[in-house]
Design brief:
Strand content: 15-25%
CATH architecture of the largest domain: 3-Layer(aba) Sandwich
CATH superfamily of the largest domain: Periplasmic binding protein-like II
Structural class: alpha/beta
Number of strands: 12
Order of helices and strands: HHEHEHEHEEHEHHEHEHEEHHEHHE
CATH class of the largest domain: Alpha Beta
Largest sheet: 12 strands, mixed
Distance between the termini: 56 Å
CATH topology of the largest domain: D-Maltodextrin-Binding Protein, domain 2
Number of domains: 2
Shape: globular
Number of helices: 14
Length: 343
């Protein structure tokens, strides 16, 4: 039995070194830390992620599932004595806000070399682990019954063909909706972008609180079109649904990041967790947990996930939109506060 325990201990240390790319000093620090990492997380299939991470590294992942806003509030409240070591997933705007408030620790993972620099914060305060993509979910039954068109471009959505059939979410509540309107303002320029949104909201009968709301209403057959994050995932979950996903001429996107919390109680384990998320093995687990577009080009996508080479990604200035969040939302409310918002 003693020999078996010894073998297991050696295996765990070897796994840690593989995923972290550790130096001897790091390995020494790892051995001094309790074998646990605490993660604030907004991601799918958390038990799967925790099980596979522990299997690969020997470190137990304890997690708290929180929305972006909830995680940011907790990190601010706990700034002098953080409970979390790592923050995984959620809106990039919240990560930028946390970076500006000194809540995150810069860390450049050795595995970031395999990731497009577009998805990595230049100083290492956050790194994308997958991409959230904005597209349109269409109800094919309603399109057929009503003779409605299939949109090809963002300009199509502001024509009269979509009036009363297009559902979106409220950016003052939903991080998904906030970066969607940022993408539109980035695409058209702010002056023309607000003019575009004036016409866009003339076609939406109401807004939903959550970013998932429009897709749910389209899936239920209540409306023909919904602006949805990762619309392809609906058909992956149920291929029998009468829906179709579409990406328009320019794809609005943002990274789902991972960051180390400033003042983390298990800093070496936090680095190992980040390294694992960015490794090929970790990326394959994260894709199983949430079938988003990956950040590594050497990951084979599962059926239904679009190949990033087939999408025309908009060049997004995340720092600008993060820094201007209050101004953009004030302008949005001054223009559209009369539009009703439902669950």
């Amino acid at each position: 039995m003693k020999n078996l325990k010894g073998i297991l201990a050696i295996f765990c240390v070897m796994a840690v070194l593989v995923f972290a790319g550790c130096t001897e000093q790091q390995a020494s620090n790892v051995s001094q830390e309790e074998q646990v990492v605490t993660v604030y997380v907004a991601y799918g299939s958390l038990d799967l992620i925790a099980d596979e991470f522990e299997k690969d590294t020997g470190i137990k992942m304890e997690y708290v599932s929180l929305s972006s806003g909830e995680a940011l509030s907790r990190l601010k409240a706990e700034q002098s004595n953080p409970s979390a070591d790592v923050w995984l997933g959620g809106g990039i705007d919240a990560f930028i806000s946390a970076q500006q408030d000194g809540l995150l620790e810069a860390y450049k993972s050795p595995n970031a070399k395999d990731i497009d620099p577009l998805f990595v914060e230049e100083d290492g305060y956050w790194t994308g682990v997958s991409l959230v993509t904005i597209g349109i979910l269409e109800n094919t039954d309603l399109l057929s019954e009503k003779g409605l068109p299939q949109p090809q471009t963002w300009d199509d959505l502001i024509t009269d063909d979509y009036k009363g059939e297009l559902i979106a979410s409220n950016p003052t509540v939903s991080g998904t909706a906030y970066f969607t309107i940022c993408g539109i303002l980035q695409m058209y320029g702010e002056d023309e972008g607000w003019n575009y949104l004036d016409k866009f909201y003339q076609n939406t009968p109401f807004l939903t609180k959550r970013g998932s709301g429009p897709g749910n209403l389209v899936t239920a057959g209540e409306y023909a079109y919904g602006v949805a994050p990762d619309p392809h995932t609906t058909l992956i979950a149920d291929s029998e649904l009468p829906v179709k996903s579409a990406f328009l001429n320019k794809v609005i996107w943002w990274p789902s990041p991972v960051s180390i919390v400033n003042g983390a109680k298990h800093p070496e384990n936090a680095k190992i967790f980040v390294d694992w998320c960015l490794s090929k093995e970790g990326q394959e687990v994260l894709m199983q947990a949430s079938p988003r577009v990956p950040v590594r080009g050497d990951i084979e996508v599962i059926d239904g996930v679009p190949n990033p080479k087939d999408l025309d990604f908009l060049d997004m200035d995340f720092m600008y939109w993060g820094e201007n969040r209050d101004r953009i939302l004030d302008e949005w409310e001054s223009r559209y506060r009369e539009i009703s918002t439902t669950e």
